[in-house]
Amino acid sequence: MRVLITGAAGFLGSHLCDRFLADGHDVIGVDNFITGSPENIAHMFSNPRFQFLKLDVTNFIYIDGPLDAILHFASPASPIDYQRYPIQTLKVGAMGTHKVLGLAKAKGARMLLASTSEVYGDPQVHPQEETYWGQVNPIGPRGVYDEAKRYAEAITMAYHRYHGLDTRIVRIFNTYGPRMKPKDGRVIPAFLTQAIEGRDLTVFGEGSQTRSFSFVTDTVEGIVRLLNSDYTGPVNIGNPREYTILQLAQLIIERYGKTSGIVHHPYPQDDPKIRQPDIDLARKVLGWEPKVELETGLDQVYEYFKQIYEKNGTFQG
Ligand code: NAD
Ligand code: UDP
Question: Which domains are seen in the chain, by residue range?
Answer without folding.
Answer: 2-175+215-237 (3.40.50.720), 180-211+241-275+292-312 (3.90.25.10)
